[in-house]
Amino acid sequence: MNLLEVNELTIQTATRQIVKRISFSVEPGNWLAIVGQSGSGKSMSTSAIGQLLAPNLKAGGEILFNGSNLLEMSSKKLNTIRGKQIAYIFQDYQNSFTPFMTIGKHFDEYQRNHLQLSKAQRLQNRQQALASVGLGDEYAERFPFQLSGGQLQRTAIALALLLKPALVIADEPTTALDSISSYQILQLLARLQKETGCAILHITHDLRHAANYADHVLVMKDGDILEQGNRSQIMEFPRHSYTKTLLEAIPSLGQAEE
Ligand SMILES: Nc1ncnc2c1ncn2[C@@H]1O[C@H](COP(=O)(O)OP(=O)(O)OP(=O)(O)O)[C@@H](O)[C@H]1O
């Protein structure tokens, strides 16, 4: 069974249909990249999964997670799934943190909200989680503003993976980072995906990222899916002219080195 199955999802305001009957699925442990230019409806589609849409937006269709329709689920039930089984990593990682709360306190609160563990167990989990993203436990004493962008996004990843979710939704997780930090973040996600077996739904406007990491790629434009398929299908035999344009925009290795 698919972990996530999106069937004919529509998202609209009172006057405008933004996402137009799109369907896609994610298998357990798979990496699906959703690629498309700004405004194509990528973030909106993935926000609908966790019932995170703005109040003026209405979603229709079905979003099945392990067979249950998330669009019809009570917010109380969804709260038990979000974080624990479905975790988000956002582009604006700064907003994922409370400014005057230490990193350690973030880990503690997150576990207390979702699990019943002793203080010693929570501490051990925090140490392991920080270590898994290459940060020593001394970072627990720091406040978010005392970390670099890359360190903070690594911490956000450690938090997102803390409860071993089956699905991680990473919405442009590297956009705010320089290219070296971006590379490290994606490498880190790929390693943690292998270690934990989670599936990743990765939103990116950069087809290079999809080329390097995704098992499947879905191309969106103006609220519609233009094409989707496994990575080599899309990268080597794109059918749509828009996908070809995105591919042509990737600098060749020679150009990139220059
Ligand atoms: N609450 C809202 N009400 C009305 N329109 C909205 C709302 N939020 C976003 N939009 C519009 O919906 C469209 C899709 O937005 P969305 O954020 O999903 O795009 P995106 O593909 O993720 O773009 P980006 O790569 O820039 O994040 C855009 O035209 C956006 O302006």
UniProtKB/TrEMBL annotation:
Belongs to the ABC transporter superfamily. PANTHER family: ATPASE AAA-TYPE CORE DOMAIN-CONTAINING PROTEIN, OLIGOPEPTIDE TRANSPORT ATP-BINDING PROTEIN APPD. It is a peripheral membrane protein. It is found in: Cell membrane. Pfam families: ABC_tran. It comes from the Bacteria. CDD domains: ABC_NikE_OppD_transporters. The keyword Disulfide bond does not apply. Keywords: ATP-binding, Cell inner membrane, Cell membrane, Membrane, Nucleotide-binding, Translocase, Transport. This is ABC transporter ATP-binding protein. GO terms for molecular function: ATP binding. Residues 4-247 form the ABC transporter domain. PROSITE patterns: ABC_TRANSPORTER_2.
